[in-house]
Design goal:
By secondary structure, the protein is α/β, with parallel strands linked by helices. Helices cover 34% and strands 23% of the residues. The longest helix is centred in the first third of the chain and has 25 residues.
Length: 265
């Protein structure tokens, strides 16, 4: 018995902060046929809000160190402003979106991440359980889940989590029930050798080429968690994993479109 196709799309980068880019992205997203789920970031929004409130920001290899002050800020930015704006815009396009965090319906239960290589990231979650039944019920009831990058520990504590990690965790878990395609969308056409040169698009990436580019500093900062998660998804057996520009989501379902980075396991 064949499984239903499920498109999982993660959007982040500058797109979440730019109303015109976001409108274009959502228009392309809602054109995807069949079941779909959206995971969004909002790191730049959180950083700006922290700056406005005079709260220092600490980032290590693209990952945000989260203390009690920062968890309040990312909750406002992710679950509040970013999530509800996206849901409202999709509803305006007759796409029946419903906004969620990992705490809603016990969607994503996590444990607090222990110090890694001597670095304590604070209130960061490592997922231990996904509520597949909830997501399946919502998807088959005609809803489009829109997931903010927050989880919880089942003891009343919200936990921050990189949106790329949430997307990859959902993809790997839901692939047991659905035929998942995983798309990471942001402001660039894909992974570039030089961000100033759009023509430097890297069309194919695997683990070996990633490690070489990481060592040579071609890939760094926020692209590290994105590609580490994309590789984990591809290596789990999901055949379509792509990193593309925000306005090209619907085109990835056509075999002739190749202006994106395809990630191989």
């Amino acid at each position: 018995m064949s499984r239903e196709r499920l498109h999982i799309v993660k959007v982040g980068g500058q797109v979440v902060n730019d109303s015109k880019m976001m409108a274009t992205f959502l228009s392309s997203f809602q054109q995807l046929e069949g079941l779909k789920l959206l995971v969004h970031g909002g790191g730049k929004l959180a950083t700006q809000l922290a700056s406005d409130l005079g709260v220092p920001v600490s980032m290590i290899e693209g990952r945000r160190v989260t203390d009690q002050q920062m968890i309040r800020i990312v909750t406002m930015a992710y679950a509040g402003k970013a999530n509800k704006t996206i849901v409202a815009q999709l509803q305006g396009m007759n796409c029946n979106a419903i906004g969620l965090t990992g705490a809603d319906g016990n969607l994503i239960e996590s444990t607090i991440r222990p110090p890694l290589n001597g670095i304590d990231y604070g209130l960061i979650g490592d997922p231990v359980k996904i509520n597949v039944e909830l997501l399946s019920t919502l998807l088959h009831s005609g809803f489009v889940p829109v997931v903010a990058p927050l989880t919880h520990d089942k003891n009343g504590q919200l936990l921050n989590l990189n949106a790329d990690t949430i997307a990859s965790t959902l993809a790997k878990t839901l692939n047991e029930s659905f035929d998942v395609s995983m798309i990471y969308a942001f402001e660039l056409t894909g992974v570039l050798k030089d961000v100033a040169i759009p023509e430097s698009l890297i069309k194919e990436i695997n683990r070996m080429s990633f490690e070489q580019m990481k060592e040579n500093k071609i890939i760094h900062s926020g692209m590290l968690p994105k590609l580490e998660n994309a590789l984990a998804v591809a290596e789990s057996g999901i055949s379509q994993v792509g990193i593309c520009k925000y306005d090209s989501i619907a085109e990835l379902s056509t075999s002739s479109f190749d202006e994106y980075t395809r990630v191989h396991g």
